Records
---
Amino acid sequence: MSSDVVSNVPMGTEAPSGEMPIEPVRTYTTPAQVLHWLTASLVLCMIAAGIFAKQLGGTPSGDLLLRAHKVVGILTLATVLVRVCYHAATARLGERQQPRPVLHHLLYVVLLIVPLIGWAGVSDLDDRTLFFGFSLPAIWREGMGYGEVLLSLHAYLAFALLMLVALHIGAAIQNHVFANNQSSGSTLEPTA
């Protein structure tokens, strides 16, 4: 990513030519970029494993995918927590903070809630087994009778997460196209 600023005219004021200034494209540090793409990869794997595990049911392949889904869910939760801590740490170090859209905040919240609700559901149902004899610790008391409800909520929120990811990708593409068109001096014309 380039850190070049497209315009040095403050936002909201007119440039000397009478055109509105171009908002600079947000740039991220290398650790932030690595954490972003790691999160994106984990979310993709987690959702794919969850969907296929559900479709395969109680088959050996389905059980294997469900265990993988749990592992990737925990890794996703840990990565998002690291991202939140990294963002908080860099904010305290005085790095220039740019406002984050509501979509980013909503993505973080859902990325934290989805794995926690799934974890609570498997804790209730005592289905916390991973690989090689390892199990997740219980975060919800076993046998409370809410396991199926929690896992249904987990699934609905996972599909909401997919919707938010699609909106995030669309916004990123729109910002990229707009920034490239503005820096080249061209404008987007609607096609008939």
Note: Confidence is low (pLDDT under 50) at residues 1-13.
---
Amino acid sequence: MAIRLRRPLAVFLMCAFIIGCAARPDGLAGKAGQGVADAALADAGPTVYQVGKLPDPGQTVQTGRYSYVAVGTQAAQVDPLLAVIDVRLPTDVTTVEDAVNYLLRRSGFNLLPPDPGDQPVNYLLSQPLPEVHRHLGPISLREALLTLGGKAFLVNVDYVYRKVGYHVLPAYAEGQRS
């Protein structure tokens, strides 16, 4: 007797499942020719921002199911010297000047050649690269350039011509004259 009751129950459940899969929601029933997913996307508004309206500062855009990206430029895109680097200098980089040129090669900046009479800067750039400076990072490019110069030098940046140079701090320049 129990077997006879199970068969009609199984048939009923299978029919309910098939009918449930074939049924369309009431809101989408009038959209003939569109799939359920297409109709849902057609009803959705713009996901980024409306036409003619700029995104709000701090706005994010969904790029995947669980991922969001901030809208706008990054600080390193505005000032490439703020880019964070992690670099191991190759063995053919032997002087501080070689190291500076190596670090600047993909930044869009070039090393400004020092004045011939600027002895401290000429001396700095001709010095052998300290072994401790073979691995720099993670560090900003600006900090890496300051590290290569040491505490007696500051980095000059010419953003118009995209040149980077060094100059001696006044406290150390006075010590050189005496």
Note: The radius of gyration is 33 Å.
---
Amino acid sequence: MQINVLQNKFLKVQISTLGAELRSIKNLQAQKEYLWQADPKWWGRTSPVLFPRIGYEENSCVIKHGYARDSLFDLQKKTENSLSYNLNNELIITYTLLDFSLTVEYDVITDMSFMIGAHPAFNISGLPSQLVLETQEYYLLKDGKVDFKNIFTTNKHTFEVTHETFNKDALVFKNDFSSHKVRLEDSVTVAYESEFLAIWAPPGAPFICIEPWWFTTTGLKEFQFSIHFS
């Protein structure tokens, strides 16, 4: 396992070859760490990549959330502001740093059936914490799968996360492929064009995961989202 670094005068980003996982996103001016640091007391990961499976399916040969997060990637290309990782010529992940923004691109280079998603965990100042979302309809994750039979509506764009929000599991917001943004407190904004957006944390944890997910990938091979920091 190797840690590679992207850095400009604003941010320092660390990425591991294990899972091509983001390990740190630090504001150099404020000395502020945005990313959860994998304390196993709450959750021992920071930003796993979900591929080729999201969630869990009975009688499937693919483990929950897929194998990419526990696989060693090869560092394929490095430029002044980007790093690209390759997993067995199945998946290429590219991280590009520009000023206060980090763009994440997924390129699937195999014909296998797949789902793909991100799972970054961002530190919060405490609970309750507020998310500002453009989407309002959501489902619950039940037994490792999205329960599409029951849909809920928030009727508001500011969603308050409390100690009880994730007592059952993640909330999965519907997106319909239009471009959306979600803002966490006043420091992190995720811009995404994914089919769904999941939010999750262990109940009471000092972080919130903001997760763009793609389920319906027929004909699609390239996916991306970006994170903006302040």
Note: The chain has a mean pLDDT of 93.
